[in-house]
Design brief:
Chain lengths: ~150, ~475
């Protein structure tokens, strides 16, 4: 083996060691970053601006307003069944949006609406009572909160 | 052409692989094993670009929350902080991440959006902070397990304006967690709110009071929209609506040893669901509602609670679907003077405006509901019990008509000082040694954490594994027992 060949092999060996250390350090960095990276994902999700949700929220608010406005103390029989069916649809949409939104603010406000719509639907069995009036007022407050959330 | 693998090159490759492997191993465990036990926040010489050591602490709790990992405790020096605390990592069951004031420190977080937001992170403990005047909920938890919120104060969150209200503690999809010893007061929505499948949690020993929306009568002390939680030993009072409320979604909760009193008030604000008094200040509103309210839920136990002086029926069950067994048990409660008199806003009193009775079960909720061993009383004449659509002015009349409450008692419970919210029992109380210790959820300790005691001067008339449990939230401690246990 010539001296030049030996020298080349030494350089190759040194290069190999250097590359290996770089790879090892890189792996360590990536792993450390990955550990922390999961959290920033959550962080950014929680801090997610809700602008992207506002069209869905606006549509939901409109549907909920229409549906709950159609209930009165004299809503009985077929009209009550129709209102309940409408409420089921709106309730399903609210629960779905509460699950899918990346915004904590939107999630909370939509969840509140879903919770109160469930109570509202139940209170329709007693539309002339204080309970129904109380829950209706709460739903209205939820809708106001959602409108304000999206700057409406 | 690549050179052949000589022995030397193979040795280098093997070494390289070993180094890489070691690097991976070290990096994967370094965060937990190599982390300092404590991170420090606040005080002189602080820097958020440092390492959070005692010598150079972080300036903000938020910075500590960003870097803290399992097993680390964040110690915060006295002061008022304005940052929102948002943990970036989870702890583990055996090594939670803990946030707490340093020894002797008083720490307030004020003016942030939230005080603590625990979102998609688990095994986090927050203990001993005061969070006030946040623009949103003081504490917000989402999709987390193993959270512990203890001995904090959540005060003044949000504003009493539509769209700007906020809860003291908003707990969404929180499981297997503990909320204990907190003061949750004067918030602009309900004090503690559990929703969206939050289950397996313990809500114990908290005080939730004076919570009010201010424009709609809706703020509850503890609001349950989720199933399967223990709500025990809490004091809920002076809220704008009910003390404890279970609404659709809030099935199969165990509500025991709580004290719910004086959820009653008067406001001159125009509430949208106002109950104006017929005389006095007729332009104002009577606020407050039930002591414990269950609407459209099934399978819960309401046992051993003390309920006093609320606006509407003290313990209320209504709205169970017709034909569906409620699966509710009411037992060992003391419920007194509910819906008995309400403020007229001009220094006088009027009849209370909504439902009546110390205990009320509406017409669709009777099926599968069991009541026994309760103690009820009214200091003025009025409705004692409601069963279906019928009101009864005495327990005896209710017992005869309903077949329920065969071991109930109608009597003055002989509290030490209800006007001072002292609901401990005096000697000779008819509540002593007369409860059903086998009632579902009846705890071995009372609301003050004291053991059940057999009062030697009272014959035991209770049943179950202990025939000497007392009714209500507090166990009478006879003088000799006090001496023996002190």
């Amino acid at each position: 083996m010539s001296a030049s060949t030996t020298s080349t092999h030494r350089w190759q060996l040194l290069l190999g060691v250097a590359l290996t250390i770089v790879v090892a350090l890189g792996s360590a960095f990536v792993l450390t970053g990955a550990t922390r990276g999961a959290a920033p994902a959550a962080q950014s999700a929680a801090a997610q601006p809700l602008g992207g949700d506002c069209p869905d929220i606006g549509s939901l608010v409109a549907a909920a307003s229409t549906t709950t406005a159609s209930t009165t103390a004299t809503t009985h029989g077929a009209s009550a069944a129709a209102v309940r069916a409408g409420l089921d649809t709106v309730l399903s949409r609210a629960r779905g949006l509460a699950r899918t939104t990346a915004s904590d603010d939107a999630r909370e406000s939509v969840q509140n609406l879903a919770d109160d719509l469930a109570a509202y639907r139940l209170s329709m069995t007693r539309p002339a009572t204080d309970r129904h009036a109380d829950i209706a007022a709460t739903v209205r407050a939820d809708l106001t909160a959602l409108r304000r959330l999206c700057g409406h | 052409m690549a050179p052949p693998h000589t022995p030397a090159r193979r040795a280098v490759l093997a070494l390289s692989t070993l180094v890489a492997g070691l690097g991976l191993a070290v990096s994967s465990v370094g965060a937990a094993a190599g982390a300092a036990a404590y991170l420090y926040v606040g005080g002189g010489g602080c820097s958020d670009t440092g390492a959070g050591t005692a010598a150079v602490p972080f300036c903000t709790i938020a910075k500590a929350a960003k870097v803290a990992v399992a097993g680390q405790t964040v110690l915060v020096s006295s002061g008022t902080y304005t940052d929102e605390v948002f943990p970036w990592h989870s702890g583990t069951a055996g090594s939670p991440i803990i946030f707490q004031p340093a020894a002797g420190a008083v720490v307030t977080i004020a003016g942030a959006k939230h005080g603590f937001t625990i979102s998609n992170q688990s095994w986090i403990t927050v203990s001993g902070f005061t969070v006030r005047d946040t623009t949103s909920n003081a504490f917000y938890v989402f999709n987390a397990t193993g959270v512990r919120l203890s001995n904090n104060t959540a005060r003044g969150s949000g504003s009493p304006v539509a769209g700007a209200t906020a809860y003291g503690m908003y707990l969404n999809s929180m499981t297997g967690s503990v909320v204990t010893g907190n003061l949750v007061t004067d918030n602009s929505a309900s004090g503690i709110y559990l929703t969206n499948g939050s289950t397996g949690n313990q809500i114990t020993g908290n005080e939730s009071s004076w919570n009010a929306y201010g424009y709609v009568r809706n703020a509850v002390g503890i609001d349950l929209r989720a199933p399967g939680n223990l709500v025990s030993g809490n004091r809920v009072h002076d809220n704008e609506d009910s003390g404890i409320q279970s609404y659709p979604g809030g099935d199969r909760n165990t509500i025991v040893d709580n004290v719910s009193y004086h959820n009653k008030g008067f406001t001159t604000a125009a509430l949208t669901n106002c109950s104006a008094p017929p005389t006095g200040n007729t332009a104002g509103c009577i606020t407050g509602d039930h002591g414990i309210d269950d609407f459209g839920v099934t399978g819960s136990s309401v046992v051993g609670n003390t309920v006093y002086d609320n606006v509407a029926a003290g313990i209320n069950l209504e709205g169970v679907a017709s034909g569906t067994p409620s699966g509710f048990t009411f037992a060992d409660n003391i419920s007194v003077d509910n819906a008995a008199s309400c403020p007229d806003g001009a220094g006088g009193t009027v009849k209370c405006p909504r439902t009546r009775g110390d205990i009320r079960v509406d017409a669709t909720s009777q099926l599968g509901t069991r009541l026994d061993y309760d103690l009820v009383n009214l200091s003025v004449s009025g409705t004692m019990m409601v069963w279906g659509s019928t009101s009864y002015t005495s327990l005896a009349a209710f017992q005869a008509a309903s077949g329920q409450e065969s071991h109930a008692r109608q009597a003055d419970p002989r509290w030490n000082g209800p006007a001072q919210a002292d609901f401990s029992l005096r000697a000779g109380s008819p509540a002593i040694d007369s409860a059903d210790s086998g009632a579902p959820g009846q705890p071995a300790l009372d609301a003050a954490g004291r053991p059940r005691v057999d009062d030697p001067s009272t014959p035991n008339s209770g049943i179950g594994v202990r025939s000497y449990d007392d009714r209500g939230a507090f166990e009478y401690q006879p003088p000799t027992t006090r001496g023996a246990t002190s």
